[in-house]
Amino acid sequence: MNRITLKDRDFTIFITAADIEKAVTAMAQQINRDLEGKNPIFLIILSGAFVFAADLLRKVKLDCDVTFVRLSSYSGTQSTEKIRELLGMNEVLKDRTVIIVEDIIDTGHTMDDMIHKIRNLEAREVKIATLLLKPAALRKDLKIHYVGIEIPNDFIVGYGLDYDGFGRNLPDIYKVVPEE
Ligand code: IMP
Ligand code: MG
């Protein structure tokens, strides 16, 4: 389906499942090469990154741990600067190589906040892996090690990303049709 309606907005197909798979595979291969011989811990940012993380992690061949943190910053189609931690980190990150797995970096506020929290937990090194990046929206000076696909500043849904709770289960990624 090329055009769908979620709640009160229309969306059109933007990135197909096949193209997502290519980007995820390329990222996993790069992580496998870069971190060979290390025992990293993947920190999955819920809820949005759960689909991406499940696909990425099954392609990662390293001896690794996986843990989760649940954050929320979006309200409707707008990013807010207030980030709520709904499920905290209780894993020991001290002296670990931590790879943060995120669905999308928009303004960068969420990621900036995460990086500071993890540094306080005395991780040895922190790397960022995001499926999507909106370079034009980025407001923070972040070193992003792994980016799947760069996208323009449109609101998107699918493959874990939601519009007010809708659309997370879509296998493809859709972008919002602007309101007339
Ligand atoms: P940031 O703090 O502005 O970088 O926003 C990051 C978070 O907002 C991500 O973890 C997503 O959950 C959410 N987000 C950002 N852009 C979109 C979008 O286009 N669609 C759905 N969620 C988004
Ligand atoms: Mg998210």
What is the terminal separation in angstroms?
22 Å
The helix tally amounts to 3
Shape: globular
Percent strand: 35-45%
Average of pLDDT: 91
| Helix content class | 10-25%
As laid out across the biggest beta sheet, the strand order is 5-4-3-6-7-8
Order of helical and strand elements: EEHEHEEEHEEEE
Q: Which segments are poorly predicted (pLDDT under 50) over 5 or more consecutive residues?
A: none
Estimated radius of gyration: 16 Å
Largest β-sheet summary: 6 strands, mixed
Number of beta-strand segments = 10
User: What class would the helix/strand composition place it in?
Assistant: alpha/beta
Give the names of the bound compounds. Answer: inosinic acid, magnesium ion
Write a short abstract of this structure.
By secondary structure, the chain is of the alpha/beta class. Helices cover 21% and strands 37% of the residues.
Describe the protein.
The model has no long low-confidence stretch (mean pLDDT 91). The protein is 21% helix and 37% strand. The protein has helices spanning 17-34, 50-57, 109-120; strands spanning 3-6, 9-15, 41-46, 65-75, 78-87, 97-105, 125-133, 146-150, 156-157, 173-176. The radius of gyration is 16 Å and the shape is globular. β1 (3-6) and β2 (9-15) form a beta hairpin. It is of the alpha/beta class. It has three helices and ten strands. The strands form two sheets. It has a six-stranded mixed beta sheet. The protein has a four-stranded antiparallel beta sheet with strand order 1-2-10-9. The structure holds inosinic acid and magnesium ion (MG). Magnesium ion binds next to β6. Inosinic acid binds next to β4, β6, α3 and β9.
